[in-house]
């Protein structure tokens, strides 16, 4: 469980949201520290956009509490929207304006400095400033939306699928600029399907699955604490001990068994003497993608054997 501190950029406490028969968020509690790039991962329909819409005040939680930069998301949404930068997964822009014009128009809502920063971003992102937005490509429109969101140098930037529609060069440049923002104390919350990209830039990762927060942890801690354990069993059907720790998944291919385990103790091999029926034991670090699949793949086998030594580390979500 990650816990609230005054340094939290945003926080959710036991948030639930249901759309008719669909539970979009179930008892989600989360605290995002300031000055980090925080990635929200989840498969299609996991609840990422709903969570972001609750934070930005576009959707109300059925119950639970959400706050951003100390403001209540339900009753102070206007304050929140003025102080953060936000790009939705379907940014709405005035199509009849040019990027230059929309920047000038938007600058009226923000302090001095917005327009200069916005114009610099347009140049850096190679956006044709004098072309009508309706005539821009999908990626160019995404760039305009990003430049508008970052132009006032917000303390918190919330991005729903920020890199979809951007070409690989710009994606890289854009994600690196997110790391730079965090380095000067700004916070970035981004939802993404691009796990490899997230792995390069995120400080913290949360994984949502069917509306439930399954994992919240600093990325490094997650990668250090999750191991892929493999063993070869004497024969197909041999029963061998399940590793201590929190076993996320178990798969068997022929005589090889593979477990993804978090909190694997250092002395784990002690459980596998020659008489255990398991040989060729090894434990390797898991990639973020492997961790994501272990958490989200509903077809994966999860051993139900109770494990007296199971540990729940700080990567465990609060929900
Ligand atoms: N306005 C709505 N009315 C009805 N159902 C909704 C509404 N908004 C979201 N949902 C449902 O809530 C669930 C979560 O949707 P959400 O858009 O939050 O997922 P997501 O993780 O952002 O997915 P994706 O990665 O595909 O964008 C889905 O089952 C979706 O169909």
Name its key features.
Alpha-Beta Plaits, Rossmann fold, 9 helices, ATP-binding, 4-stranded antiparallel sheet, binds adenosine-5'-triphosphate, ABC_transporter-like_CS, single chain, alpha/beta, 319 residues, elongated
CATH superfamily of the largest domain: P-loop containing nucleotide triphosphate hydrolases
State the helical fraction: 25-40%
Number of self-contained structural domains = 2
Q: What kind of sheet is the major sheet?
A: 6 strands, mixed
Number of strands: 14
Radius of gyration (Å):
22 Å
The CATH first-level class of the largest domain comes to Alpha Beta
How would you sum up this structure, described in words?
- The structure is a single chain.
- By secondary structure, the chain is α/β, with parallel strands linked by helices.
- It has 2 domains: 8-210, P-loop containing nucleotide triphosphate hydrolases (Rossmann fold, 3-Layer(aba) Sandwich); 226-296, Alpha-Beta Plaits (2-Layer Sandwich), CATH 3.30.70.
- The chain has 9 helices and 14 strands.
- The chain has helices at 48-55, 77-83, 99-107, 114-124, 138-150, 168-183, 195-201, 219-225, 288-296, and strands at 8-19, 22-33, 37-42, 63-68, 71-72, 84-87, 156-160, 187-192, 204-209, 212-218, 226-233, 246-253, 256-262, 278-285.
- The strands form 3 sheets. The protein has a 6-stranded mixed β-sheet, sandwiched between helices.
- Strand 1 (8-19) and strand 2 form a beta hairpin.
- The longest helix has 16 residues, at 168-183.
- The protein is elongated, with a radius of gyration of 22 Å.
- Residues 305-319 have low confidence and may be disordered.
- Adenosine-5'-triphosphate is lined by residues 19, 22, 24, 42, 44-50, 89.
- Adenosine-5'-triphosphate binds next to strand 2 and helix 1.
